[in-house]
Specification:
Blueprint (H helix, E strand, L loop, with lengths): L1 E6 L7 H15 L3 E6 L25 H11 L4 H12 L2 E7 L7 H10 L29 E7 L16 H14 L4 E2 L3 E3 L7 H16 L44
Parallel strand pairs: 1-2, 1-3, 3-4, 4-5, 4-6
Helix pairs in contact: 1-6
Bound molecules: flavin-adenine dinucleotide.
Length: about 260
């Protein structure tokens, strides 16, 4: 299998960096081809601006989605963005590896998504009509591929439990797992989360590394999170409301969009 790891930590000797090394070694031992996009090492440009669209007329107002779609259609996206898109098309499995910063992605990784996920590539794909609301949420350009998150977090596991003060981890990761990964078609594997990461000692690291090796060993067989397909009949089109009666008793919020919850 071809596997792309997008790594977003400014320090290669960090815990995240050590987890990356464990993942790469474990995957290569199993014969997978692994590529790593180390965003800081690459000097990745994190913000979308005029410079992303060299074809835009001088002085023209920047409308990002429109400019993105035009540049994608014309093959005029910048070389750094095209290179990442080619890696996504090459990879059967995508792994985003990052520390949880302010309950979300570090800015450089969010900026990677903002720039690489061009209109026509990751969104604005497929027929948009009263009958069909595009190819997304389980369909789209990256359908047939799998993705997962490897995340380190300072907080305790209990703080991210159902009644924990930070909110449940599945809810916090929903915009990334459902909104960023499932949207363009990826099947999303359950995340690998390291809690209390700042307090990890060598013994703790050995345990975490072993857990990660197990996850890497079962990448191809781990069942994905059962997010509901947009065009699979569970939603009314075009209102995109989940049909009533499909949810488990008492299910609300993000859990509505997982079948079986
Ligand atoms: P590092 O700082 O590199 O290492 C963490 C510990 O692992 C160190 O004690 C290190 O000695 C140890 N370690 C053990 N073995 C190894 C090894 N082999 N290699 C390297 N290190 C090892 N946390 C939350 O829960 N929620 C938040 O919203 C949140 N927001 C944050 C926002 C910011 C801006 C910052 C800076 C931190 C935030 N945190 C938050 C905490 C953050 O998630 C953790 O600091 C981070 O996940 C730790 O990962 P790291 O790779 O940076 O660890």
């Amino acid at each position: 299998m071809n596997i792309l790891i997008v790594f977003a930590h400014p320090e290669r000797r960090s815990l995240c960096g050590a987890l990356r090394d464990v993942a790469v070694a474990s995957l290569e031992e199993r014969g997978h081809a692994v590529a790593v996009s180390d965003l800081h090492a690459m000097g990745w440009k994190a913000t979308v601006d005029q410079a992303d669209f060299p074809g835009l007329a001088p002085g023209a107002r920047l409308q990002v989605a429109a400019a993105s779609g035009e540049a994608f259609g014309a093959g005029a996206l910048t070389a750094d963005v095209v290179a990442e898109q080619e890696k996504l098309l090459w990879a059967d499995q995508l792994i985003l590896l990052f520390p949880l910063w302010w309950f979300g992605l570090p800015a450089i990784l969010k900026g990677w998504v903002d720039r690489v996920y061009a209109y026509g590539f990751a969104y604005g794909v497929g027929e948009h009509s009263d009958r069909r609301w595009g190819d997304r949420y389980g369909e789209g350009r990256l359908a047939g591929k799998r993705a997962m998150l490897i995340v380190t977090a300072g907080g305790w596991e209990e703080h991210y439990a159902e009644r924990g003060i930070n909110g449940p981890i599945d809810d916090l990761l929903f915009p990334i797992q459902h909104g960023i990964l499932y949207y363009p078609g990826y099947a999303v594997l359950p995340p690998f989360v390291v809690y209390q990461a700042d307090r990890l000692d060598a013994g703790g690291f050995a345990t975490v590394a072993e857990r990660l090796r197990e996850r890497m060993a079962t990448l191809t067989t781990t069942p994905p999170v059962p997010f509901r397909q947009q065009n699979g009949g569970d939603y009314r089109i075009p209102s995109m409301q989940l049909r009533s009666g499909l949810e488990a008793p008492g299910a609300t919020g993000f859990a509505l969009h997982r079948a079986g919850d």
